[in-house]
Structures are given as structure tokens and as C-alpha cells.
Amino acid sequence: MVRRILQGLVIAATICFFLGLAAAIYFDIYLSLMVVTDAFLQVAGAIFFVFLLMLIFRYATLLLMAFLQHLETVGETVDLKDYPMVTMILPAHNEGPVIESSIHGAMNMDYPAFEVMVVDDGSTDDTYERACKLRQMYGSRLTVITQPNGGKSTALNNGISRARGELVLCTDADSKLEPQTLREAVKHFADPEVAAVAGNVKIANRLNMLTRLQALEYIEGLNLIRSAQALTRRITVIPGPIGVFRKSVLEEMGGYLSDTFAEDCDLTLRMMIAGKRIKYEANAIAWTEAPEKVEALFKQRYRWGRGILQALMKHRAQLWKPTQDPIAWLMLWNMVFESVALVAMDFCGIGLFFLMALSGGLSSLVFLWWTELTILDMVAAVYCIAREKEDLRLAFYAILYRLFFIPFVDGMRFFATLDELFNVRMGWFTQQRMGRI
Amino acid sequence: MNIELYSLLATLVLVATLASVVFAFASYMLFRIREHRKLQRKKASVHAPAPAPAPTPVAAAAPIPEPARPRFFKPYEPAN
User: Mean pLDDT across chain A, nearest whole number?
Assistant: First the structure.
């Protein structure tokens, strides 16, 4: 107990130190801008200042909401009287190197009533054969079906329609679930209002700089946002590697649709618009394999970027209906901000960097801007790492994260946005599995 | 911290940021070129006559599992 209090105090002191530093830098930036007399630099400085304010507000809001959500769940002890049957669906297309590991992981659940259903989506490798071999080991608890290649959505729908469970866990064949996942996720369904629970996705293959940066991004970026959104029960993306749904809700929604490249985002948005409540469970953990090479990362982010835009465009009418569900409306606009405005702001910021540094000699501002954002990243990273009991060393990657990773990822999102606007043809890129999980 | 050090650090930040954006652009161009080539190959293969399938002895053929036809849900109808 004393150790936990001490740990909490150390983390709180670290966060306070960083926040103090960020405030001092912010004040320094303000003072630097006050002495500028050139008209162009004044306008550029004002834009710079507003961007920075918006980013600070974003971080502060996310951290506060995530912290409140954490407080809400700390004392939450739900004693399940009966355990609803859960069907875990693993859609798989050419997942030979990882399918066995995924099935073993799914079968290892600490939960009394579940079945696992592998849906082979017309694989051309030995995915189906490898999955079938394990049927002897697990008996009737493992079902393996195959279908002609029709995409992930049809594979998931196929599994959902055959599921015997009252609840359905959708995962990816390249993900490995932790044993407590089902127990932790299912407890939320004691509340009849809850339609789905989003889980916590973590990177398993932290083998090089690129995958470690992605590990930090998942913890500090994606999970922080999801945790903050969960306070309102309106999450905008239930991640593909781990989402638990009521089967009745999936049927009501018409299952997954294949008209976007982000079927998980599309389904979540449809649920949110239909007034369904979605929670987040940080202890329902899925370990997934991240792209280890830049080319694979590019393809993944390109697909995500375009998929999210497609889903947003599909539901754009909701952006003009604030009265239907004001919080869901805010969440949709927040999604527009995160996927479009934030990228544009980053690029405008970079442009202003150059102009101010080259024409006005205000290069110190460039460094202060970057330091301010890196400190905010570090604060968020320290909080998330402490909350998830993750590797503290990841916090130091925040420096490289802001310096290289964010401009690179924003660049990819920018090109994906352009291609989506100009309707450039794209295909579904399959990530080559390395069998790391 | 004096102004020279600020300028040096700012230059480092600028160079790193610019390099990352240029790298993203290069990755994008490479990706587009590969996609274009893939499309060309696909088009070429559509026009080429398909080779006749080689006969396989019946006894050697592995049992092919009957694929389960996907069942589809009713189309999604928004509530409003």
C-alpha cells in the first residue's frame, strides 16, 4: 500500500514537473511574440499561438477525461452471478505463421463459457489446415469454417451469424489475447445499457525503433483517446483486435459492412449514432503484431487514414444534427479534428516554423514549440505508462516520437486524405505476418 | 540558454521535421509507383490467354473441404 502511494506521488511529481516546464515555455513563447513588430510575423505568431493553445487544450482535456474514467473504474467491482456464453471470432486470411498462436491464446481464457470460431477467408496458404489440426486438441470448443475470399467484414459476419454466444468477441488472427480479457470485458455487460466494450491493444513485437514508437503511440495516443471517450460512453473506434459486442446489437446494426476500409470504425460510428453505449476496459488486452518496416507501416496507415475518412463521409449528415445526441455529435467533430484538422495544423505549423525561422529570425520559437509539444507528449506518456504499468523507458521515445514519427505519420495521413478526396483507386493491403506473437 | 544554442537546436528540429516529411513523401511516391505497376501487371494478365490446367490424378487429390457459404445480415437501415 505504502509502495503504491509512493509510486503515485513520484508519478504525480513527475507530471507536475513537466507541466510546470511546459507552462514556463509557453510563457516564454508568449513573451517572444510580444516583442515582434513585423506585421507578417505578428499574424504568423498569432496563428502559432492559437495552434499551441488548441493542442494544450486537447492534451489537458484528454488527460483529465482519461483520469476521471480511471477513477470511475478503480473501485468498480462487479460480481458476475452467471457467465454469459461468449463466441470469439478470429477471421483469418493467409495468417499461417500466427494462426496457431492466436488460437492457443484464445483458448487460454480464464472464463467458464466460451467457444472459438476461426473463419478462414479463402486463404491461399495453410491457415485453414493449421487451424483444423488444433480441432483435435480443443474439441467442440473450437470451430473452424472456411469461405471463399470475401474480405474481413464478410468473414466476421459469417462468424457472427453462426455464433452461439450471447456476446461476441471480434479479434484479429494476428492478435493474442490475455487470459483475463473475457472476464474483465464481460463484467461491463452486467449493465443492460452497455452494447459493446472496446479493449486495450498493445504492440507485442517491440524489436526495433519503429515498433517501439508504435508501442508508445498505442499507449499514449490511441488508448488515451479511447479511455477519455469512454467517460461519455461514446467511443469512436472499437479496435479490430479486441471488441466485445452483444450479438443482438450486431444483428440490429446489420453486422460489419464492407463499403469502407475501416469496417471497425464504421460499425462503431453506426452504433454510436444509434444511441448505443460503449465502454472501455484497459485490462482486456490484445497483443498485436505491428509493421516492422516503413513500407508496411505506410500501407497500414494509408488504409486507416482513408478508411476513417470514408466512414466519416458516410456519416457526414450526423455532423449537422447536434440536437439528436449532443455528446455523440461532439465526438464526431472531435474525430474530424483528430483525423483532418490536426494533420492540417501540423503542416501549417511546420510551414510557419520555416517562415518564422527564415524571415524573422525567430528560430528560438521553433525550438520552444517543439519542446512544448514534446513535454506534453511526455506527460501523457508518463501518465499512460503508469496507468497501464508499462515499460517506463518508452516515455523517452517521446522525443523521437515528436521529432520523426508524428511528421511521418501526419505526412502519410495527408497523402491518404488527398487520395481519398481525388478518389484514387486503392486495394486492401495485407500485412505480412512475421509470427512474433 | 543563449541565442546561438537555441538557433542550433531549432535548426536540428527543422531538419528532422523536414526530413520526416520528405521521407513520407518518398514513401508515398514509391507506394504509388508500385501500385501502378501492380495494376499494369494485372491488366496484362487479363489480356493474356490462361494456361490450360494440368490434369491431376483423382487418387492423389486431397479432400477439399466444402466451403461454408457466408451468411449475410439484412442491410443496415439507419434509424432516421
Answer: 87
Partner-chain contact B70 A147, CB within 8 Å: yes
Picking from A238, A244, A204, A217, the residue whose alpha carbon sits closest to that of residue A98 is A204
Comparing CA positions, the residue from A233, A282, A228, A232 lying closest to residue A61 is A228
Cell of A35: 516583442
Asked if pLDDT for residue A183 goes beyond 60, the answer is: yes
Q: pLDDT class for A268, splitting at 50, 70, 90?
A: very high
Q: Which CATH class is domain A86-320?
A: alpha beta
Compute the CA torsion angle A223, A227, A233, A235 (nearest 10 deg): -20
The mean pLDDT value for A4-29 works out to 72
Q: Rounded CA gap, A245 and A256, in Å?
A: 12
- Residue B18 in contact with partner chain A when CB distance is under 8 A: yes
CB contact at 8 A, A123 and A151: no
**Can you read off the three cell numbers belonging to residue B52?**
490450360
Domain ranges of chain A: 2-74+331-421, 86-320
Residue A316: pLDDT over 60: yes
Residue pair A168/A87 in contact (Cβ under 8 Å)? The answer is yes
Residue appearing with cell numbers 521553433: A366
Residue A198 is classified by DSSP as E
* pLDDT tens figures, B38-52: 888 888 877 666 555
Helices A363-388 and A342-359 pack at an angle, to 10 degrees, of 150
pLDDT at A90: 94
Confidence of residue B60 (pLDDT cuts 50, 70, 90): very low
Residues of B in contact with A257 (CB under 8 A): 76
By Cβ distance, the residue of B13, B70, B74 closest to A403 is B13
Q: Report ipTM for this prediction.
A: 0.78
Residues of chain A with C-beta less than 8 angstroms from the C-beta of B28:
298, 411-412, 415
Mean predicted confidence (pLDDT) in A232-236: 93
Question: Which bin fits A118, alpha (ψ -120 to 50), beta or left (φ > 0)?
Answer: beta
Chain B positions in Cβ-Cβ contact with residue A158 (cut-off 8 Å): 68, 70-71
Q: What mean pLDDT is predicted for residues A292-301?
A: 90
Helices (H) and strands (E) counted in chain A, each on its own, are 17, 8
Domain residue spans of chain B: 24-49
Give me the amino acid identity at A36.
V
The DSSP H or E segment spanning A45 is: helix A39-74
